[in-house]
Design brief:
heterodimer, A: alpha/beta, Amidase signature (AS) enzymes, eleven-stranded mixed beta sheet, globular, B: 477 residues, Arc Repressor Mutant, subunit A, 3 domains, nine-stranded mixed beta sheet, three-stranded antiparallel beta sheet, 16 strands, 19% strand, elongated
C-alpha cells in the first residue's frame, strides 16, 4: 500500500488520486470488518476536483489527495458525527474540528468516520452502537479500542492514514492490536477543538498510519496552533503555524535513524513488563535486543507510582465524563423519542435509551466520585496520584532518553471475551493510562505481526515528539528487517 | 421595617458585565431586542466538541469590581464546573468559580440612617466570574403555559457574582446595600442597571439564630426588600405558632410579592464542583492589578466628600447627587456653569424627584435633557425671566416629551410678564374687585392675598406674586 508521504508527492506532481480512492471504497464495500460508521459521500467528487485542480483546489497541500479516515468523535461539518452512540445517531456538526479543517486545508480527502467504542469508553470497539469492528489479522478477535475502526481501516487498506483520539490508550491499543503505528501526542500539542470530550484533561487527537513517516506527516498537519483551545500549548517559535514540524523526521533515512541509536539510553520500567503474556514478552524483548545490537543501552528500572495509576485514571476520566455527557438531553440535537413528556421525564428517557451500558456505568461512577463527601476521597486523591505519576516520569527522563514498554499486556483477545467483565477490561489499559496521566507523548509501533500483532510503546518527555519519532523510525527499520 | 433583632441577611448578587462579547465565545452580548437564538454559536450552545475561551475583558472588569469592593485580589484564579440539569443550561453545567475566586474578603460601607453615625460596613465574602444561562420563556404565564421555550441568546453573558457575609440586618439595609453595589458597578462603567434582568439576587436569611432560608429569583431593589420583609413575617408567624423553620430554598414570586417553597434540605442540589478541564489556571500578576487599580475612577463615597468640600454642599445633597454616576456627572457639568448650590437644589430635589415620580433613570433622562438645558433653565430663573413654577414645568415637559427650554417657554407662555403687562393686569383686578379693594382699604389685610391670587389667575400663573403684591400695595395703601 502506498504511503501518504509518497502519494501526496505524486498527486502534487500531477498524478491522479481518484483511482486510489475508488479502490479504497471498493475494499470498504466488500469488507466485513465494519471499520466505518459513516462514509463521506462527497469524497469522490473532492478527488476529481483535486485531479482537475478545480473548486479552489491548488496543486499543493501536504496531504494532497490522500485519503484520511477520521474517528467518529471528531466533528466534521456536514458529515454525521455519532461518537458511536445512539444518542448522537443523527447529529451532523455545523463546524469542523480544528484538525479536520487542517486536513482539508492540506488537501486530504476524508474517507469517512470510523467506528469506535461509544464515547471512547472501551478498549475493544465492542461498545459501539453500530456493532463491533473486527480485527483484520483475525476476524474473531477485537481490533482494540477505542479507535478500533481507524486502526483496522489502515491495516485492511480501507484508508491510508487515520485520526484517532487517545484518552487512556485509545490510539495505541488498537495500533498494537492491528499492527499499525499510532501516536498519542503530548497533552496540549494538538487542538482539541471539535473533539467530542470523554475526559478533557487526558485526551489528545493523534495520528495513525502504517508507517512512522506517515504518522510524522499527519502530526505536522494536525498540530496547528489554535486559539480556540485554551489547553493547547503554543510552542515557540510563536510565529510558526504548527506546534510540530515533521521535516527533520521525513528527511531522515532509515539508516541514519538506526545509526543515531548509538548511545541512546532506554529505560524499561519493570511494572510495565510484569505479568504480560508470553507472545508479547518474546516480541518485546527481541525488539529491545535489536535496539541494543545497534548501540542503544537499556536498563530495567522501577516506577513505584504505577500501581496507583489505573485507579486514578479511571476516577478522573469517569468524573470528567459524567459532566461532559450531561449535555446530551435531546433538547437541542441528538436523539428524540416521539414521546414528549415533562422535561425531567423526557430527558431521562432519552438518556436511558440513548446511552449504552458502559457509558451509563461510567457516568454513574463519575457522578459518585464527584459527589459531596466523596470528592476528597476519590477525585482529589486521584489528582494527587496524577501529580506523583507526572513527577516520576519527569525524573525518569532525567536518566533515560526514552522509555520502552509493551503497549498491551496481551495480544488481541476474542470478541466477547472480556466485554461482560468491565474490571478485566479496564485492566488491559494498565500500560497505556499512566502516559495520559503524565501528559507525555507515546507511540506504539509493531514489534511482531504474527501469529498476532504485538505493539511496542515508546515514551518520551513532554514535547519531545521529534526525538520519539526518530527512535520509532529506527525501530521500524530494524523491525521491518526482522519481519522479512 | 425597623431593626430586626437577630435577623441575619446575606446576599448573592449577580450582575451582567458590559463586555462586547460573551464570556467564553465571540457572540455579541447585545442580545436584548434580538430574535431568539440568533446570538449563538457552538460554544454558547454547548455543542459537542466546542471549547470555551476566556474573554479577558470580562476578567479585567471582574477584577476591577473586586478592587472597588476592597477585596484581596487572588493571584491565581480558576474556573469550575457547577453541574446540574436545567433546560436553560446547554452543557448540563455552568462554568463558574469555586475555590480560587477572583477576590476575597472585601467590604462596602452603606449609609443606613441620617448623618455619619448611620454608616454600616458590610463584609464581602467573595467576588467571582461566571456565565449566565439561557432564558426560559413561558408562553402565557408560568403556571398556565403548556410548554416552555428556551432562548440561548443570554447563554454565556458574563456575570460577576458578589457574595456578602450575613451582615445585613434588615430588608431595608439589603435594599440600600444593593443600591450601593449598583452605584459602584455603574461608576466603574462595567454595568448598566437600566437593562432588564441585568442584576439578579439570591438572599439568605435567618431569624434568631435559626435555620437559614435561601430566597431565589429576586430581580430588583424593591424586590429584595419586599421578599425579605415577607419572609420575616412568614417565619415570625410560623414561630409564633410553634412551628420550626427548616433549611430550605424558596422562590420569590415578584408578581404576588410572596416567597414559595422550592426544595427542602434533603433535596438540595449537589453541584459536584470540579475544575473546568477546558480552561487553564489564570495568573493575575501585580502589574495587572496595579494597572486596573489606576483605571478605577473616583468612587461614590470619595465623590461625595469632594462635593461637600468643593461645592459647599450639605451631606444630604452630596449623597443624593453622587449615588448615581450619571446624576453626579450631570450635576458637575451644570455646577461648572452656574451657582453650585442652586444647581444642587434643582438637581437633587427637583430633577431627581421628577425622575423618581416617573421611575426614570438619569441615563434615560439624559436623552431628553442635557446639562446645557439645565443651565439655561437655571439662568432664566436666576435672571427672573421665568418663575420657579415655570422652571419646574419646563423640566417636566422635557422629561415627558423632550424639546428645548426656549421653545417650551415660548410655546407655553411661561416667560415672566413684563412690568407693563403686570401693571395692566393689576389695574384690571382692582377695577373688577371693588369689594375686596374696599375691604383692604378698611384694614382687612387678608384681602390683599385675595387680590394677589386674582392677579395670578388672570395671568395664568406667569406673574411674579411678589411683584404683584408690591404693585397692589403701592396702588391701594
Amino acid at each position: 500500500m502506498l504511503s501518504a508521504v509518497d502519494m501526496s508527492e505524486r498527486v502534487r506532481s500531477g498524478e491522479n488520486c481518484e483511482e486510489i480512492l475508488h479502490e479504497i471504497y471498493e475494499r470498504i464495500r466488500s469488507s466485513e470488518l465494519n471499520c466505518y460508521i459513516t462514509l463521506n459521500d462527497k469524497a469522490l467528487d473532492e478527488a476529481v476536483q483535486i485531479d482537475r485542480r478545480e473548486g479552489g483546489k491548488s496543486g499543493c497541500g501536504k496531504l494532497l489527495g490522500v485519503p484520511v479516515a477520521v474517528k467518529d468523535c471528531i466533528s466534521t461539518r456536514g458529515i454525521r458525527t455519532t461518537c458511536a452512540s445512539r444518542i448522537l445517531n443523527d447529529y451532523v456538526p455545523p463546524f469542523d474540528a480544528t484538525v479536520v479543517a487542517a486536513l482539508r486545508e492540506e488537501g486530504a480527502i476524508i474517507v469517512g468516520k470510523t467506528n469506535m467504542d461509544e464515547f471512547c469508553m472501551g478498549s475493544t470497539t465492542e461498545t459501539s452502537y453500530f456493532g463491533p469492528t473486527l480485527n483484520p489479522h483475525d476476524t474473531s478477535r477485537v481490533p482494540g479500542g477505542s479507535s478500533g475502526g481507524s486502526a483496522a481501516a489502515i491495516a485492511a487498506g480501507e484508508t491510508i492514514i487515520a485520526l484517532g483520539s487517545d484518552t487512556g490508550g485509545s490510539i495505541r491499543c488498537p495500533a498494537a492490536f492491528c499492527g499499525v503505528v499510532g501516536l498519542k501526542p503530548t497533552y496540549g500539542l494538538v487542538s482539541r477543538y471539535g473533539l467530542i470530550a470523554y475526559a478533557n484533561s487526558l485526551e489528545q487527537i493523534g495520528p495513525m498510519a502504517s508507517s512512522v513517516r506517515d504518522v510524522a506527516l499527519l502530526l505536522d498537519v494536525i498540530s496547528l496552533k489554535d486559539r480556540r483551545d485554551s489547553t493547547q500549548v503554543k510552542l515557540p517559535p510563536s510565529d510558526a503555524r504548527t506546534n510540530f514540524n515533521a521535516d527533520s523526521v521525513l528527511g531522515m533515512s532509515g539508516d541514519d535513524a538506526i545509526s543515531s541509536l548509538k548511545g541512546l539510553r532506554i529505560g524499561v520500567p519493570a511494572e510495565f513488563v510484569h505479568g504480560i503474556s508470553k507472545d508479547v514478552e518474546r516480541a518485546f524483548w527481541s525488539a529491545i535486543h535489536a535496539l541494543e545490537d545497534e548501540g542503544a543501552s537499556y536498563e530495567e528500572m522501577h516506577m513505584d507510582t504505577m500501581k496507583y495509576a489505573l485507579a486514578a485514571y479511571y476516577i478522573i476520566a469517569m468524573s470528567e465524563a459524567s459532566s461532559n455527557l450531561a449535555r446530551y438531553d435531546g433538547l437541542r440535537y441528538g436523539l428524540r423519542l416521539n414521546r414528549d413528556d415533562d422535561w425531567h421525564t423526557t430527558f431521562s428517557r432519552i438518556r436511558g435509551e440513548g446511552f449504552g451500558e458502559e457509558v451509563k456505568r461510567r457516568i454513574i461512577l463519575g457522578t459518585f466520585a464527584l459527589s459531596a463527601g466523596y470528592y476528597g476521597r476519590y477525585y482529589l486523591k486521584a489528582l494527587k496520584v496524577r501529580t506523583l505519576v507526572k513527577r516520576e516520569f519527569e525524573s525518569a527522563f532525567r536518566k533515560y532518553d526514552v522509555l520502552a514498554t509493551p503497549t498491551m499486556p496481551m495480544t488481541p483477545f476474542r470478541l466477547g471475551e472480556r466485554i461482560k467483565d468491565p474490571l478485566s477490561l479496564y485492566l488491559v489499559d494498565v500500560n497505556t493510562v499512566p502516559i495520559n496521566l503524565a501528559g507525555v507523548p507515546a507511540i506504539s509501533i509493531p514489534c511482531a505481526l504474527s501469529p498476532l500483532p504485538v505493539g511496542m510503546q515508546l515514551i518520551a518527555s513532554h514535547f519531545e515528539e521529534e526525538k520519539l519519532l526518530k527512535v520509532a523510525l529506527a525501530c521500524e527499520n530494524l523491525m521491518n528487517a526482522h519481519f522479512l | 421595617m425597623g431593626d430586626e433583632k437577630g435577623v441575619k441577611i446575606g446576599l448573592e448578587c449577580h450582575a451582567q458585565l458590559l463586555t462586547k462579547s460573551k464570556l467564553f465565545c465571540g457572540c455579541s452580548s447585545d442580545y436584548r431586542n434580538a430574535k431568539p437564538n440568533t446570538h449563538v454559536c457552538p460554544v454558547c450552545l454547548g455543542l459537542p466538541g466546542a471549547l470555551p475561551v476566556i474573554n479577558m475583558q470580562a476578567l479585567r472588569y471582574a477584577i476591577k469590581v473586586a478592587i472597588a469592593l476592597q477585596c484581596e485580589i487572588q493571584h491565581k484564579t480558576l474556573f469550575y464546573r457547577k453541574n446540574y440539569f436545567y433546560p436553560d443550561l446547554p452543557r448540563g453545567f455552568q462554568i463558574s468559580q469555586y475555590d480560587y475566586p477572583i477576590g476575597l474578603n472585601g467590604k462596602v460601607s452603606i449609609e443606613v440612617g441620617d448623618g455619619e453615625c448611620g454608616e454600616r460596613i458590610i463584609r464581602i465574602k467573595r467576588v467571582h466570574l461566571e456565565e449566565d444561562p439561557g432564558k426560559l420563556i413561558y408562553p402565557g404565564t408560568i403556571s398556565t403555559s403548556k410548554y416552555v421555550l428556551v432562548d440561548y441568546n443570554r447563554s454565556g453573558i458574563p456575570l460577576v457574582e458578589i457574595v456578602t457575609e450575613p451582615d445585613l440586618r434588615t430588608p431595608r439595609e439589603a435594599r440600600i446595600f444593593l443600591a450601593k453595589i449598583r452605584s459602584i458597578l455603574e461608576y466603574l462603567g462595567v454595568f448598566n442597571g437600566d437593562l432588564e434582568g441585568a442584576m439578579r439576587v439570591d438572599a439568605n436569611i435567618s431569624l434568631g439564630g435559626g435555620e437559614r432560608v435561601e430566597i431565589k429569583n429576586i430581580s430588583s431593589l424593591k424586590g429584595v426588600e419586599r421578599a425579605l420583609s415577607y419572609e420575616i413575617t412568614r417565619q415570625r408567624n410560623m414561630m409564633r405558632r410553634g412551628m420550626k423553620i427548616t433549611q430550605e430554598t424558596r422562590f420569590y414570586d415578584e408578581e404576588r410579592g410572596v416567597t414559595v417553597a422550592m426544595r427542602t434540605k434533603e433535596f438540595e442540589q449537589d453541584y459536584r464542583y470540579f475544575p473546568e478541564p477546558d480552561l487553564v489556571e489564570i495568573r493575575i500578576d501585580d502589574s495587572l492589578i496595579a494597572s486596573l487599580k489606576a483605571e478605577i475612577p473616583e468612587m461614590p463615597d470619595e465623590k461625595m466628600r469632594r462635593f461637600i468640600s468643593q461645592y459647599s454642599l450639605g451631606s444630604e445633597h452630596a449623597r443624593a447627587l453622587t449615588e448615581d454616576i450619571h446624576i453626579a456627572d450631570f450635576y458637575e457639568a451644570v455646577a461648572s456653569e452656574i451657582d453650585p448650590q442652586m444647581s444642587a437644589t434643582w438637581i437633587a430635589d427637583v430633577l431627581k424627584g421628577e425622575l423618581n415620580y416617573r421611575d426614570m433613570s438619569m441615563r434615560e433622562a439624559m436623552k431628553r435633557i442635557s446639562p446645557n438645558d439645565m443651565v439655561r433653565i437655571l439662568r432664566y430663573l436666576k435672571a427672573g425671566e421665568i418663575a420657579e413654577r415655570a422652571a419646574v414645568e419646563v423640566i417636566r415637559e422635557m422629561l415627558d416629551h423632550g424639546g428645548s427650554p426656549d421653545e417650551i417657554i415660548k410655546r407655553r407662555g411661561l416667560a415672566r410678564m413684563s412690568m407693563e403687562e403686570l401693571k395692566i393686569a393689576v389695574s384690571e383686578v382692582i377695577h373688577e374687585n371693588n369689594a375686596a379693594v374696599a375691604d383692604l382699604k378698611s384694614g382687612r389685610k387678608e384681602a390683599l392675598n385675595f387680590l394677589v391670587g386674582q392677579v395670578m389667575k388672570k395671568t395664568g400663573g406667569r406673574a411674579d406674586p411678589k411683584e404683584a403684591r408690591k404693585l397692589l400695595e403701592e396702588r391701594l395703601l
